């Protein structure tokens, strides 16, 4: 249990930071706007049941990790794994973390409701649009059968885990993307942009599409040219057919908070116990029951560290991920 830090050091850290003696019980959470709907739903129910204040921010995965690695939060929501730079920042500050997958998400490419031509796009099409240095500015440049319509792009900001995962999956390199688009860490801003522009396109988590399907159209994705296009859905994520845009999403728990703040441990236990139901309620995809059982055991043992080693991976199994953390 937290072998690399040691129990004596953890106790010293806890008292130095005031965790043990804190009079008011507050759980502080920040991070991914994608994971936010799940964590917010858990926080609302937990506060009612336990009377503990839980604050949940959504400054993006990168912004959340900055706060987390400075010791400002107990939990960080993340739509991609912790990076090497963030690992180094946490290590320098003496912050250990427990990496917990909580659900699956399907990154969803969306267009304006009046767009009746781009019902399906291939990964190659998306790369043509979003690749670094891309000069594509008209739908007709993507496919000659498409109309002569200006292409208006909206997407997550560079601090977003969704941005990092999408660029890895589509462009083959994390954070590698054209820069002439309208960015925002707030997915609602992206919804507004696409819904007000006939030629608009954006990408974000499936839950935000489900919330706004009266304003947007989702695009089916072909893993390669000529292959059948797959629409984002719970079933497509569960059966593995929605590739490469299906991904796990996470919470990272400060190991000292988990060990010495009973309210944090209770919150994470509550999160994992209720995730299957609440994840569905906010339109994400629950993990298999066997994975949740393994994650609960992982947290019970307070296994600190990451199974990714500072790099993102597309298509990793949860069981393989957990097995990497000793």
In whole angstroms, the N-to-C terminal distance is 9 Å
Largest sheet: 5 strands, mixed
Nearest-integer average pLDDT: 90
**CATH classification class of the largest domain:** Alpha Beta
Number of strands: 12
Radius of gyration: 20 Å
- How many helix segments? 14
* Classification by helices and strands: alpha/beta
The name of the CATH superfamily of the largest domain reads: Periplasmic binding protein-like II
User: Residue ranges: pLDDT <50 for 5 or more in a row?
Assistant: 14-23
CATH architecture annotation name of the largest domain: 3-Layer(aba) Sandwich
Strand line-up in the sheet with most strands: 2-1-3-12-4
Give the overall shape, derived from the CA principal axes. elongated
Order of helices and strands: HEHEHEHEEEHHEHEHEHEEHEHHHH
Number of domains: 2
Tell me what portion of residues adopts beta-strand conformation. Answer: 15-25%
Describe the structure.
Helix 2 crosses helix 12 and helix 12 packs antiparallel against helix 13 (289-300). The chain folds into 2 domains: 7-104 and 248-323, 3-Layer(aba) Sandwich (D-Maltodextrin-Binding Protein, domain 2); 108-238, D-Maltodextrin-Binding Protein, domain 2 (3-Layer(aba) Sandwich), CATH 3.40.190. The protein starts with 6 loop residues before the first helix and ends with a helix. The strands form 3 sheets. A 5-stranded mixed sheet has the order 2-1-3-12-4. It is built from 14 helices and 12 strands. The protein is of the alpha/beta class and 326 residues long. Strand 7 (152-155), helix 7 (161-171) and strand 8 form a beta-alpha-beta unit.
